Amino acid sequence: MSTIDSVLTETRVFEPRADFVAQANISGMAGYRALCDEAERDFTGFWARLARENLQWSRPFTRVLDETNPPFYKWFDDGELNVSYNCLDVHLANGNADKTAIIFESDDGSTTRVSYRELLARVCRFANGIKALGYKTGDRAIIYLPMSIEAVVAMQACARLGITHSVVFGGFSAKSLQERIVDVGASLVITADEQMRGGKRIPLKPAVEEAFAMGGCEAVRKVIVYRRTGGDVAWNDGRDVWMHDVERGQPELCEPVQVNAEHPLFVLYTSGSTGKPKGVQHSSAGYLLWALLTVKWTFDLKPDDIYWCTADVGWITGHTYITYGPLAAGATQVVFEGVPTYPDAGRFWELIQKHKVNLFYTAPTAIRSLVKAAEASPPHHPRNYDLSSLRVLGTVGEPINPEAWIWYYNQVGGGRCPVVDTWWQTETGGHMITPLPGVTGLKPGSCTLPLPGIMAAIVDEAGGDVELGKGGFLVIKRPWPSMIRTIWGDPERFKKSYYPEDLGGRYYLAGDGANRDADGYFWIMGRIDDVLNVSGHRLGTMEVESALVAHPLVAEAAVVGRPDDLTGEAVVAFVVLKRARPEGEEGARIARELRDWVAKEIGPIAKPKDIRFGDNLPKTRSGKIMRRLLRVVAKGEEITQDVSTLENPAILEQLGKSL
Ligand code: PRX
Fold first, then answer.
1. pLDDT digits (tens, 9 = 90+) for 382-423
2. In angstroms, rounded to a whole number, what is the distance separating the alpha carbons of residues 394 and 360?
3. Shortest CA distance to 320 belongs to which of 138, 167, 130?
4. Separation in Å, CA 419 to CA 298, 300, 409, 438, 456
5. How far is the CA of 488 from the centre of ligand 1 (A)?
6. Which residue positions in the chain have pLDDT lower than 70?
7. Which class of enzymes does this protein belong to (predicted)?
8. Is there an atom of ligand 1 within 6 Å of 417 CB?
9. 399 labelled as ligand-binding?
């Protein structure tokens, strides 16, 4: 059964336990309603209060929200602060200098701990080193690093100097890296020799060399290399410098550069409905405020908690819920280099047991694969580990099917821990719609209710509210502090993508379809645009299509998603070659070649699971590819729709055949 079908038949409700409610940061429905009411009554006053109470400002703001040029909203825009100061220095001032900030667990199981004092010292030394290389506020740095303390140090050091970072996930290809270097106009690249994943060394620096060879990266003056494995790498003497040499001899104090609240802390690329990824630009103050508050609210973080988010810093989840939110909140967190299945499928459970993790945040895809692994290998079932430290479980990135939710709740959480199913996006900066563990009755598969101050709604094509129970477009009716500010270098695209005229240009359009039940709970139905969600990773169908047609053999390609038990959605590509349609062995060989090609163009996550060759694609007489039909063909279902407008209906049968 697909996730959507099983979600729609779900009726169970799990109320929070009284003892949890009693100790919660936001306690009970009354506590939640009080905050929502405050935001309704005095929207800007609500946000101003939170920003004053939770952040340290070097120059206090007097303006809260500037709405004079919608949708280019500004928050706290006459205030100044430094993000890294708010993540590190503040904890030294409040007596937590020796508290562990990061417990780093490497791929091979060795552990390194750094306290807030040590982390600040490292960030300062590295920031001083970058400064000595001539970098300053306003410059852009690409960070292409594995999960490591160094990745956090690099991001925080940029924040300390007001250098805007753009992290590129280590699994992305040289081509994707080059495109981002060019688009963001980077003058600095921070990378590693290699990364370790699942016992294997995976090169990183060579991808940087390849990216440079593609041209357009001439603005990059220095490449800083973290020596992770000591593997052999090509070296360009004038340009390349080791991270430890950059830090060497630098003082452990680096004055934070106070930046405007709206200063771009980072640009993170994500897929949209065109072939070109969008550089989502985030602010400093508004972003940090929400990162900090949502860590405290959604996970009910307490001073002694051990928190672990399994995301990679290459994604927004790693930015907000590893590098910024937990540090701003003064948490102790696990940072994990490896993969959930190495050395065996019990790795996550073993780590929770070893570090006595209290708050655990992961993706439905990981849960689904671990359900399978636990069935296949009973010794690695979570019941064989001591998981009694767990208090709150979270999920993110894609809808979770109720079966996986129930397994997570019972087998991992022992039927004791609330599961917070957090709906949000790269663009929203932080959680938007999510249960609160001491407030919300949980319904498996629903992200439940919007956080206080988040004016989420479901509307029709004209922007009118739909009744409860009716599906529609998920929108956010008012700006919020951690929202996307623009698409880097393309404000028009920002406006068109997120504030379309059809909705009056007033509402933020998330790009998800959603439903609300009789209790007002939100149920996310998936993307309404040409964006796929594969293992919680966002992929544009056009992006994969452009990669395919760049191959010399390919004349035309159409890409759609198909529901998949493990990855949520899988990529299915329909391809027309410049030569005759291949069959049998030859077809299989070309399909393999195209898969590898896509991995090289974008990254392995974009590889089509299924490639079908046709003499043609189903098109209307006006030449439009009928993706609606391709989606049905990809699922292997009978076509019941009217195909009379098709130029060449016979093609559907040909495309229906797997190789
Ligand atoms: O479709 C929604 C899905 O992931 C999209 C955002 O992807 P990305 O920007 O990569 O951010 C992922 C991490 C925040 C959304 O438009 N999505 C995210 N969280 C959920 C979800 N779908 C259902 N339930 C969720 N909890």
1. 999 999 999 999 999 999 999 999 999 999 999 999 999 999
2. 6
3. 167
4. 10, 12, 7, 11, 21
5. 21
6. 1-10, 658-659
7. ligase
8. no
9. yes
From residue 340, how far is each of 54, 263, 374 by CA, in Å?
35, 36, 12
Which residue lies with its CA nearest to atom 7 of ligand 1? 425
Q: Is 298 in the pocket of ligand 1 (CB under 6 A)?
A: no
* Confidence at residue 5, expressed as pLDDT on a 0 to 100 scale: 60
Tell me, using a 6 A CB cutoff, whether residue 317 lines ligand 1: yes
Query: Which residue's alpha carbon is at the smallest distance from atom 8 of ligand 1?
Result: 425
Structural contact between residues 389 and 352, judged by C-beta atoms closer than 8 angstroms:
yes
Q: How far apart are CA 121 and CA 138, in angstroms?
A: 23
Ligand 1, atom 6, lies closest to the CA of 425
Distance of alpha carbon 587 from alpha carbon 609, whole angstroms? 14
C-beta separation of 361 from 424 below 8 A: no
Indicate the top mutation candidate among 426, 487, 538 to test ligand 1's pocket, ranked by most ligand atoms within 8 A of CB.
538
Q: Are 62 and 90 in contact (CB under 8 A)?
A: no
Tokens 């009973």 sit on residue? 378
Q: For ligand 1, say whether the CB of 262 is within 6 Å of any of its atoms.
A: no
Q: Report the alpha-carbon distance of residue 132 to residue 127 in Å, rounded.
A: 9
Q: Strand ranges (DSSP E) for 30-110? A: 65-66, 74-75, 80-81, 100-105
Question: 240-299, pLDDT tens digit by residue?
Answer: 999 999 999 999 999 999 999 999 999 999 998 888 899 999 999 999 999 999 999 999
pLDDT tens-digit map of 178-215:
999 999 999 999 999 999 999 999 999 999 999 999 99
Q: Measured in angstroms, how far is the CA atom of residue 397 from the centroid of ligand 1?
A: 4
Q: How many angstroms separate the CA atoms of 223 and 140, rounded?
A: 13
Distance 474 CA to ligand 1 centre (A): 12
What pLDDT does residue 1 have?
45
Is 426's C-beta closer than 6 angstroms to any atom of ligand 1? yes
Among 398, 400, 454, 475, which residue has the most ligand 1 atoms within 8 Å of its CB, making it the best to mutate? 398
Calpha distance 25→418 (Å, rounded): 14
Which protein residue has the closest C-alpha to ligand 1 atom 26?
423
**b/e map 443-458, b = 16+ CB within 10 Å:** bbbbbbbbbbbbbbbb
The pLDDT value given to residue 657: 74
ipTM, two decimals, is 0.99
